[in-house]
Amino acid sequence: MIICKNCGAGGDQKYCPGCGQALQIDRITINSLLHEIGHTFWHLEKGFLYTLKELAIHPGTTQRKYLSGIRLRYQKPFPLFAISVTFCALALFFIYRNAPNQSEQFFYKHYFFMVQAAMLPFFALITYILFKSRDFYYAEALVMNVYLLGFTSVCIVPINTLSFFLPNLVISLLEITLLITYNVWTNLNFFKGKAVWWIIVKSVVGIVASYLLFNFTSRLVMHWAV
After folding, report:
1. Roughly how many angstroms between the first and final C-alpha of the chain, as a whole number?
2. CA of residue 27 relative to chain centroid, distance
3. Contact 125, 209 (CB under 8 A)
4. Which of 178, 151, 143, 181 is closest to 65 using CA atoms?
5. Helix, strand, or coil (residue 70)
6. C-alpha atoms less than 13 angstroms from C-alpha of 35 in its C-beta half-sphere
7. Residues 96/105, Cβ–Cβ less than 8 Å
8. CA 2 → CA 6, 7, 23, 27, distances in Å?
9. What are φ and ψ of residue 103, in 5° steps?
10. Residues 218 and 115 sit within 8 Å (Cβ to Cβ)
11. What is the rounded CA–CA span in Å between residue 115 and residue 220?
12. Is residue 220 helix, strand or coil?
């Protein structure tokens, strides 16, 4: 029997029956660190990139599969959101590093991640209220929106790189077009079986409500920050 170094329980299997940690713990070496790094990137590629691909090709359907219990192949929603929005925030920081204060680009540079993360529960609440049914829980609306925002956060990076060549108005229109199209597409797939016009109308109402809430919060943040 081997005594677990983490919790003190004993066991003769590969993992501790008390806490789940491996019972056989080796000293950390350069080889073990390289193996851990390789495993991390392999898992990231297998899970994160696969999930982004599925969200790009099958929005809404991907969320339905995850919520139905098909989860092994997918990156979990909150880690995906954290990685995506962090990547987006860093990219926007460098894209708009010379943006003047009080500008939309200044907000993107400094506060995009914070506001997106803070607004997530409210975006999910809007979706939940609009599409409320006995078979649709708030937590499921939250997962749906976490995946949606994680994917769109990655998509707005290449759009904003065009700011070096295009005016800000065009960039904003491209972003709005992306968000509306992807949101409606996601809802059509997720709520498949309901009337198409019903889904589109509620999707547009949800987008407008989310935009107004996000815009109001962004202005508060900008006013507080300056």
Report:
1. 62
2. 36
3. no
4. 143
5. coil
6. 5
7. yes
8. 12, 12, 7, 16
9. -105, 160
10. yes
11. 10
12. helix
CA distance 216 to 93: 22
The 3-state DSSP class for residue 22 equals strand
The confidence score (pLDDT) of residue 83 equals 86
Is the alpha carbon torsion for 181, 87, 77, 14 positive or negative?
A: positive
DSSP 8-state assignment for residue 44? I
pLDDT in tens, the chain (226 residues): 778 777 877 777 788 877 877 777 766 677 766 666 555 555 565 688 899 999 999 999 999 999 999 988 898 898 889 888 888 888 887 887 776 654 555 555 566 677 778 889 999 999 999 998 888 999 999 999 999 999 999 998 999 898 888 888 898 899 889 999 999 999 999 999 889 999 999 999 999 999 888 777 777 766 665 5
Output the six-digit token pair for 69: 């219990």
- Burial label for 174, CB within 10 Å (0-12, 13-18, 19+), is middle
Task: Work out whether the CA dihedral 101, 104, 109, 110 comes out positive or negative.
Answer: positive
